[in-house]
Sequence to fold (313 residues):
Amino acid sequence: MEIIDLNNYEENKHKTAIALGNFDGIHIGHQYLIKDNIKKARERNLRSSVLLFKNHTKTLLANKQNSKLEFITPYSQKLDIFGKLGVDLIYTIGFDKNIMKLSAEDFVKKILINKLNSKLVTVGFDYRFGHKAIGDSKYLIDLGKKERFEVNIIKPIYFDNEVVSSTFIRNLIKKGDINKANDFLGRHYSVIGKVVKGKSRGTKMGYPTANLRLNENYVIPKTGVYMTTTTLDNKDYMSLTNIGFNPTFNENELKIENFIIDFNNNIYNKFIEIKFIEFLRDDIKFNTVQELIEQIEKDVEYVKNNQKYLHFK
Fold:
């Protein structure tokens, strides 16, 4: 996969089949769209590609929610997933006021045609584009006829009688329904962050935890304890992850604490990826530290007895 920055670039080496969308999550609906675009690109002797904004299109909207945008899949993870799906080219560009103010027709002419040399454009049924999102899939078809490129509209993808969408998955994660969220994503939901020093309580109890400082504004799962896997230096380990406020110790700061099973190395300042497998229990206050230790022992035993679920089906 080749990654191309669109600033001061025009595609004149390839004719492209371009997939468009925010692709937050790159869930099973997005994956179907990408794979269909790849298939049609090969049939038409085009290069399969994705236009990927480096920042979310909502970041420029003038409202108080900007700083609270939460992502299922940040930019860096999107690149990795697109590569695994087999996309030939990723065109990246920052979403700025100039692009935001483009009319739907100008977006097609200046970006899709002049910059990307697009001969096929694949979008979801609910895709919107252009200034104030005035363009829709029907208008894109009309522009395609006018400008002589093919438009491929992907119908809604259903799973478990629900339309697959990033909004639905985001809500599942927040509710702690990780099993269902993973089914809709087609992979385990994961977050990436840097291991930072904590208060070392876990070490004193015999269960040293890696305190995680997230490197992106992820959707945070419901507070509680999860069966997880931890990826460190391209190797996966069984783990338990607690998201919560340490109620047994009367703290009020939300933390992500990760215990890697049968692992004792010093990993401060290293980046790890935590993949969420299953919600185990709520973040509850124990009467004594010993009760907490005994519960962690049970949690660890559960993970060890259910290793078969650590790898996505």
About this structure: The chain has nine helices and 14 strands.
